[in-house]
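2024-03-11 09:14:02 INFO worker-7 job=invfold-0412 stage=load source=structure_tokens
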């Protein structure tokens, strides 16, 4: 395995940790700055919006800079943002630090996916993309619970300083082990923008928004759901999130393994299974054991879609993939923000803490419909390319040039 992959995975670990650890430290941050919890919640929302906006902006810059250099610059900006958050004298400065750090998120994963894919043969690309994203999933299993524990005992600033220090290690790893891959010659920003007009790229991004929206509609409100409905103590929520993280790791690796072999079938299975599991979660949330199993399945099925969707975007925008790859990462966070808002609406409307699971099921069902539409359009395009009258070669048959017809004299 190229050493560049662990370096990229470490960068992904750092980014995943800074995105999610704030959720467990909101009470401490709110108390320190003297703001309400809803106000402190903008530290989560601001980060997500920063990812959505930063992905295309930073990726556009990445079309003009060699990829390793761009990754180093992104990790440097990440370190600056987390250091600013850790040392912030007030709430507004911390929010600014969160936004600075978030600007690197989409472009790092987008460009990092490109670099990882170029290190191996075409038939193994989904697998190495999944290995890179393993850093993000492991962050939820190890980094977030550990960072939350440290922040609650030693202070939340210590957690963000530790994330910044890990970011420095990730920066050095990228600079040392990622090979110098110059940007493709002749590719301009207009080419990158043109790739975003491809119907299949747009459909893949739609699957990303709605598929991951389904996951986070449920996950955003899992704490009150588990305490108020399932009957868990508040202290149990941490290990329940660890179960979700374990599901993420397993699903991500499984998705990477099978996405190169049967990507369409994998999307059908994962999105269909996720729709069913989320629908059942409205019932299983009332039982402790069933709820724990369901949380694990949601993480596994949700993250089984990461590698096939990211690879699909890369394949369809192969001539100019930098912007499309980064924007697809932004689509993950757009789905998160959309789902959290919709889940909050149904709770506020009085439908209860399990209602976001139903919202999630509808969102993932929409993603499944987009997957079916994408596949049918692919088949129709292939049939139109072959054209009427073109002989169809039997399976295993070898085509030979037609023999010339002798002219009768």
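2024-03-11 09:14:09 INFO worker-7 stage=emit residues=409
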């Amino acid at each position: 395995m190229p050493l560049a992959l662990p370096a990229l995975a470490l960068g992904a670990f750092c980014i995943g940790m800074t995105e999610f650890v704030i959720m467990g430290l909101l009470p401490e941050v709110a108390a320190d700055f003297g703001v309400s919890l809803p106000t402190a919640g903008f530290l989560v929302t601001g980060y997500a919006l920063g990812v959505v906006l930063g992905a295309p902006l930073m990726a556009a810059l990445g079309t003009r800079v060699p990829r390793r250099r761009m990754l180093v610059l992104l990790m440097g900006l990440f370190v600056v943002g987390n250091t600013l958050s850790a040392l912030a004298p007030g709430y507004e400065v911390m929010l600014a630090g969160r936004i600075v750090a978030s600007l690197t998120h989409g472009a790092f994963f987008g460009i990092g996916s490109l670099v990882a894919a170029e290190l191996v043969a075409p038939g193994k690309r989904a697998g190495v993309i999944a290995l890179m994203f393993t850093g993000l999933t492991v962050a939820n299993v190890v980094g977030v619970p550990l960072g939350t524990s440290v922040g609650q005992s030693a202070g939340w600033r210590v957690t963000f300083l530790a994330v910044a220090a890990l970011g420095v290690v990730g920066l050095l790893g990228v600079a040392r082990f990622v090979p110098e891959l110059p940007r493709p010659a002749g590719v301009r920003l207009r080419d990158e923008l043109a790739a975003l007009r491809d119907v299949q790229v747009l459909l893949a991004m739609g699957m990303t928004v709605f598929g991951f929206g389904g996951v986070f509609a449920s996950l955003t409100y899992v704490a009150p759901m588990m305490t108020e409905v399932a009957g868990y103590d508040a202290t149990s929520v941490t290990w329940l999130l660890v179960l979700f993280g374990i599901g993420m790791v397993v699903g991500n690796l499984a998705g990477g393994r099978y996405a190169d072999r049967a990507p369409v079938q994998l999307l059908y299975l994962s999105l269909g299974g996720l729709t069913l599991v989320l629908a059942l979660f409205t019932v299983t949330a009332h039982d402790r054991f069933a709820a724990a199993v369901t949380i694990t399945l949601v993480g596994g099925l949700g993250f089984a879609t990461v590698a096939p969707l990211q690879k699909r975007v890369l394949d369809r925008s192969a001539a100019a993939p930098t912007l499309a790859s980064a924007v697809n990462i932004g689509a993950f966070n757009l789905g998160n923000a959309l789902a959290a808002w919709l889940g909050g609406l149904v709770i506020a409307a009085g439908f209860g803490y399990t209602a976001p699971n139903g919202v999630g099921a509808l969102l993932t069902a929409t993603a499944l419909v987009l997957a079916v539409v994408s596949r049918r359009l692919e088949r129709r395009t292939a049939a139109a390319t072959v054209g009427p009258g073109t002989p169809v070669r039997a399976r295993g048959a070898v085509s030979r040039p037609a023999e010339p017809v002798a002219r009768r004299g």
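2024-03-11 09:14:09 INFO worker-7 stage=report msg="The CA atoms of residues 110 and 326 lie 4 Å apart."
2024-03-11 09:14:10 INFO worker-7 job finished
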